[in-house]
Amino acid sequence: MMPIRGEDNNTSAAKVDVGIILDLETDVGKVMHISILLALADHHDNASHSAIRIVPHLKDSKKDDVEAASAAIYLLKDVQVQAIFGPQMSTQTDFVIDLGRRVRVPIISPATSPLLAVKENPYFIRGALPSSCQTKAIAAIVKNYGWRQVVVICEDSSYGAGIVPYLTDALLEISTLVSYRSVISPSANDDQILKELYKLNTMQTRVFIVHLQPFLGSRLFLKAKEAGMMSDGYAWIITDVLAGLLGSVDSSVIESSMQGVLGIKPYIPRTNELINFTKRWRRRFHQEYPDMDKVDLNVFGLWAYDGITVLTKALEKVGGTAISKFKKAAIRKNLTDLDALVTSELGSLLTDFMQNTTLKTGLCGDFRIVDGELQPSPYQIVNIIGKGERSIGFWTQKDGISCKLKMNGKMAANKQLGNITWPGESTIAPRGWEIPPNRKKLRVGVPVKGGLQEFIKVERDSKTKAVTATGFSADVFKKVMLSLPYDVPYEFFEFQIPDSPTSPDYDNLVYKVTSKDYDAVVGDVTILASRSKYVDFTLPFTESGISAVVPVRDDERRNAWIFLKPLKRELWMTTGAFFVFIGFVVWVLEHRVNKEFRGPKRKQFGMIFWFSFSTLVFAHRETVTSNLTRFVLIVWVFVVLVLTSSYTASLTSMLTVQQLQPTITDLNDLIKNGEYVGYQKGSFVKDVLKRMKFDSSKLRSYSTLEEYNDALSRGSKNGGVGAIIDELPYLRNFLNKYCRKYIMVGQTYKTAGFGFVFPKGSPLVPDVSRAVLKVMEGEFMNNLIQKYFGNETDCPQKDGMAITSDSLTLDSFKGLFLIAGVSAGSALLVFFLIFLYQNREILTTDNSIRQKLSAIAKVFGEEKEKPNSKSEMSGKGNESQTTTLFASSAASPETLPYLPSQSPERTTSPPNEGFSTPEPGTPVQELITEANEEAWYI
């Protein structure tokens, strides 16, 4: 640091050289020059006893990138400046910041191109807001007015191209598309500009975002006025450079060609310091440039003042710590200017300080640099009126749009902009699109087909060739277009859908919108995911879903076999099998101990069926003696009770209630039975049926409701179909006409319904969708349905609920059969275990297995002996005692006076068994009964 003698006689002050590179041929360059001189003067006045003195070295880049590079090399090599302010153009700055990184000298540049990355250039300090900061503010304005498409007009340079990707992304976040990007060369003549504007005027979009510098921007608006594009219905938004430098634009251009334009620029608080500085700046400007016309102070001049102020503070802090200015370069022969550059030791310290610093008292407000990037302040939204501009609102990253800004910098609660005068002196916000002048009406395609004209019917006048569309879909569209808040003229164009199998279908009609043959499609067009990839649909105006219609069976009450209908076939078979099984189990348990289950084989075989089936009506009279049998019968009788009750209820319902029963209740039955299935010609339903595994050879297409009726009446076996599968609106219409013959069955497969078709990203879609909702909520829709489809309440059962069979299925009784089977099986198992145990001596013999099984079977076939040896003796004693008693009674009646006289038949009759209840008798009878009961196997 070389000490010099300053004007303030401070002999200890050290000189610090600072380079300044500006385009002094531009107004912006001159404005920043004066601001920099005032900033340095203020520093010297406020720090008269400072240890350093800043010496500026100004170089003019003359709007040339090479001149700017040459100036930077001179300042770094010959002057050895410690910092450089500038250049102001992005293309010039791109090379200079590379030099700064090489020699470690900070470059403070007001270049706004976002292509200049601060993170990749550590010695680059951006002293202005990049143009990408304003993109979300512009998107907020677009969103505020619901514009769905915009056109971007930018300069053909790095300045113009830098904002495009950021602006596109910001608009995509609000679902707005950049429909076209118009690039205008800075050297374009008036004819070229006018030609481009005429091209833009043939497009549908009427919202234009202009990112041009003042000179080119003023020429653009002059030609836009000439092209008739500054009238009612157009919206123009200019970016911060043009809006911030509006003072450099000729006032005649503003008054004649820019009225109603919206602009966005950084908000500068109007403070006393700013007012005083502006006065000083004007005096100094006229001193330096006395021949210049009136030029106003702008935001770039304020940024330059604050940027130099931050630099002076950094030099004050770190300037005295440096030992030498630059490190000497190694001595080499044939050095170029770039090789001769030396590295600064002070530059790194300056950069570290300036990369994160805040100037609270800046002329721009809060001048804050974070990681080398100037942080955005609130943006002000202005409306150009008369010779100047009028503030209509503000935008911040945190709070969005508001009409006013509070003193503390926060947004007011009102989230709207102020009153705006739009081009053409209109006070109504443009809708953002118009039908181009060369195409005065919306071209609407409508399908022409042979049948189902209740939905769309197309007629062509033989003389005028005008196309007229009527029907449910066309009438809804007409009502919707009338409900829009603006007039949209349209005309219909017919699209033929012939009956041949290879004819164009609805997909081809939809793709006509993609190819721009039509601007819209109206008809019974279903909203599908595959179609929505290429076009946009409005909200549906009909119900959705796919279902099936099948013929109704004849009255089942006249069917001779209706008594079989209450139970499904599998339930009948299972019930019959269990009857046989239970009869077999009872026979096994009773065969050895019950005479009624013995006898010839034919009798025993018949008993198995008789006994179990007699329980169906509780008509069994055979007595059972085994407790195991009683257990099985208790469970089985309960099962029979439930079955008979359910059968009775179902049969009663069939006989007493007349129902429209379908011939088929499940679509899977159509596939299993190989039935033919019908669908509407040209419909996507064919693809749905293929996905449902229907055989393509079993599909038949039809065009009219009459063909549907004929095909269903004939059936699959007679050249017709077993079912018609189509969308609900068509089936509702069909059932309304033939409700007594057919019925809707099975599951409803969801679809999105009918919608109107528009090109991808069409601005009409949201407005038309809102109008569809409005129309559907009114009485118009009900009247329209009544007009084309009649009174829906006239046809019973037409709502087509999912019809299922009334027959009872096996699934409803699985639990009962499981309990009965387990009970009977358990009893059978217990019986055989006891039987094998009692005959274990047979199993312990040395005979073969066949002989053992034969012996076991022989024993099983024999009747079980009632008494054993002891009970036989006891039986004889009881018999003798009983005989003696009867003999005594006969010889001397007085011996037992309490015994009533009995006939011989009464005395010798056997006691009652099983479930039978004996009548009251004498003690002798009770004794005989007890003796006999003890002899039976229990």
What does this structure look like?
By secondary structure, the protein is an alpha/beta fold. The protein contains 30 helices and 30 strands. The strands form eight sheets. It has an eight-stranded mixed sheet, sandwiched between helices. Strands 2-1-3-4-5 form a five-stranded parallel sheet, sandwiched between helices. Strands 27-26-28-25-29 form a five-stranded mixed sheet, sandwiched between helices. Helix 1 runs parallel beside helix 11 and helix 16 crosses helix 17. The chain is elongated and about 145 Å long. It starts with 13 loop residues before the first strand and ends with a helix. The N terminus and C terminus are likely disordered.
Quick recap:
The protein is of the alpha/beta class. It has 30 helices and 30 strands. Strand 8, helix 7 and strand 9 form a beta-alpha-beta unit.
Which tags fit this structure?
single chain, 938 residues, eight-stranded mixed sheet, five-stranded parallel sheet, disordered N terminus, disordered C terminus
